[in-house]
Amino acid sequence: SAVISQKPSRDICQRGTSLTIQCQVDSQVTMMFWYRQQPGQSLTLIATANQGSEATYESGFVIDKFPISRPNLTFSTLTVSNMSPEDSSIYLCSAGAGNRDTEAFFGQGTRLTVV
Amino acid sequence: GENVEQHPSTLSVQEGDSAVIKCTYSDSASNYFPWYKQELGKRPQLIIDIRSNVGEKKDQRIAVTLNKTAKHFSLHITETQPEDSAVYFCAATPPDTGRRALTFGSGTRLQVQP
């Protein structure tokens, strides 16, 4: 199984600012994903981070608000831009195990509070 | 797209009893069904998974069953222990079409009473 390190683990940010979350995997993976988990809720996919091309966003999420980078097969970042209190949530990155396997493992999450 | 429904939302059992959580999915092409356990403040942890070519899979006290015809799958935990208390999520994913993101159920909060 892949080991995924995510940072920061938590942050408190002022509204109107931006926060970049980093996700590092200990092995090369084809697929990386970013999820949001609001308090007491399930996980909602934000986007698929594609290596070498633009991320693929789910309905309700846009690149201007959640720009994503994927410079190589082990690293990705998610930026939460122009934050408002409604962005307070846990953000999780996830990585697949390989081309044929679909097991997904998660980073420890970033707990974001916007004040 | 895929839609996964999960029931019940909360489940309380006595230690030693069995617990069953059920999920249904909408996309008949989905072929991979993992279950995650999430303890408070922690990341989701994969506990068991099943692929569409298998009807049942067991790992010690945990088992998962899949009914492709009915498009539902279930998690069974036997001899429950207090440390099984957590939120459990089912998920489904479609075949390798370049987009293998998971669609999650709404979660089940399991409480095991000692």
Which helices and strands appear, and what pairs or packs with what?
The complex is a heterodimer of chains A (about 120) and B (about 110).
Chain A: E1 4-7, E2 10-13, E3 19-25, E4 32-37, E5 43-49, E6 56-57, E7 68-72, E8 75-80, E9 89-96, E10 104-106, E11 110-114
Parallel strand pairs in A: 2-11
Antiparallel strand pairs in A: 1-3, 3-8, 4-5, 4-9, 5-6, 7-8, 9-10, 9-11
Chain B: E1 4-7, E2 10-14, E3 19-25, E4 32-38, E5 45-51, E6 56-59, E7 62-67, E8 72-77, E9 86-92, E10 103-104, E11 108-113
Parallel strand pairs in B: 2-11
Antiparallel strand pairs in B: 1-3, 3-8, 4-5, 4-9, 6-7, 7-8, 9-10, 9-11
Tags for this model:
heterodimer, A: 115 residues, mainly beta, seven-stranded mixed sheet, 11 strands, B: 114 residues, six-stranded mixed sheet, globular
Number of strands of chain B: 11
| Mean pLDDT, all residues of chain A | 91
Structure class of chain A: mainly beta
- Name the structural class of chain B: mainly beta
Estimate the helix proportion of chain A, in percent. Answer: under 10%
Helix tally of chain A? 0
Beta-strand level of the residues of chain B, as a percent range? over 45%
Order of helices and strands of chain A: EEEEEEEEEEE
Interface with most residues: A-B, 23 and 20 residues
Report the oligomer: heterodimer
**Overall shape of chain B:** globular
Describe the structure.
The complex is a heterodimer of chains A (115) and B (114). Chain A has 115 residues and is mainly β. In chain A, 0% of the residues lie in helices and 50% in strands. In chain A, a hairpin with a 7-residue loop joins strand 9 (89-96) and strand 10 (104-106). The mean pLDDT of chain A is 91. With 114 residues, chain B is mostly beta strands. Chain B has strands at residues 4-7, 10-14, 19-25, 32-38, 45-51, 56-59, 62-67, 72-77, 86-92, 103-104, 108-113. In chain B, the strands form two sheets. In chain B, strands 2, 4, 5, 9, 10 and 11 form a six-stranded mixed sheet that branches. The chains are: A mainly beta (115), B mainly beta (114). The A-B interface holds A 1, 31, 33, 41-45, 48, 56, 92, 94, 96, 99-100, 102-109 and B 32, 34, 42-46, 49, 89, 93, 96, 99-107.
